[in-house]
Amino acid sequence: MTAALSPPPARPRSHAIDALRGAAIVTMFAANLAGPCLEPPHPMWLRVYGSFAAPTFVLLAGMMTSLSSEPAPLNRLLKRSALLLLLAVGIDLLCWGIDPFETFDVLYLLGLALPIAGVCSRLDLKVHLLLATSIIVVTPWLRHAVGYGPLLPDHLAYPWPAWRRLLVDGWFPVFPWLGLALWGGVLGRSSPLSEARRPWLLPLGSALVGLGAFAWWLAPPPIVTRAGYSELFYPPSPQYLAVAFGAVLLMLALFDKLERRFSLTWLVVLGRSSLLLYVAHVALIAFVLDEWFEGQTLPAFLALYGVMGVSLWLVAWLTQRYRRPITTTLLRAVSAPDRSNPA
User: CA angle 253-257-262, nearest 5°?
Assistant: First the structure.
């Protein structure tokens, strides 16, 4: 009787998801380092490689709001959202010396998307899917109606109004990136790594990549390099979104298979410190690398990328290695009885 009334057990944390997030961090380092530290033009393989990180982070963020047996608590999502927005503001002010919300970078997007994804995870699944798809579908029409800032004529160029940065012109605007986060929530609700759903990852991912690539070949979308950053989602076209979503599914299937045969600890370490590493690598680029290593050749850039990646991996490993002992020691010190005045 007691077992029948007890809540369902929480699903174990998947190393495949942490490893996938870790792989995205590795590609994020390259994408964000290339902007200031690699001389243009950037090779196409690097542009493709760096374009994997953003959709992975956004999809996984949405997926983690609904992957458990119960939707993530809204109060926890709101606290996480506040932290992300605070960090985004701090990065703009301290690292880049610009006004908050001027860029609408990825932390702003995630801070906005998490509570919305949490609410959507409590809706009927069909309504959830409809909302996510609607944002994606409306995006080309909206961009056609108002234009995309970096492609506008010079007399309409930056600075763009705040509403434009939020909707279409920011680095990660609501249209379509919020839709991608909500798609991640739909994916989480479907339990993609369950025995029933796992076999669908490979064919669905392959179909999306193939469809997106074919559409790209038929109608190549406009792509711009923004302030030296050369990922393929400026702006994020429907072709790119299909390929990106499919690639994330394929990589999730790959890491799910790999974790059954090999230890993925080196990627899991990165994946479990993703927010720390994001802030650390932005600060490192803004205060050191952008000043001292601007416009390097490709071999020098790759060496710099390797050194930065290993250094930040060590930061993540040390943080995880010693965080629990330090926390335990502090808690013991706080909770220890005061023996200075014995009775």
Answer: 140
DSSP 3-state of 317:
helix
Residue 131 within any structural domain of the chain: yes
Residue 126 has a CB neighbour count (10 Å cut-off) of: 9
**How confident is the model over 99-125, as pLDDT tens digits?**
999 889 999 999 999 999 999 999 999
Digit-coded pLDDT (tens) for 268-298? 999 999 999 999 999 999 999 999 999 999 9
Contact (CB, 8 A) for 193 and 16: yes
Buried b (16+ CB within 10 A) or exposed e, 18-35: bbbbbbbbbbbbbbbbbb
Q: Domain limits at 22?
A: 10-328
Count of domains in the chain?
Answer: 1
Which residue has tokens 């193939």? 210
Residues forming beta bridges with residue 296, ordered by sequence position: 38
Percentages (nearest 5) of helix, strand, coil residues in the chain = 70, 0, 30
Full-model pTM? 0.89
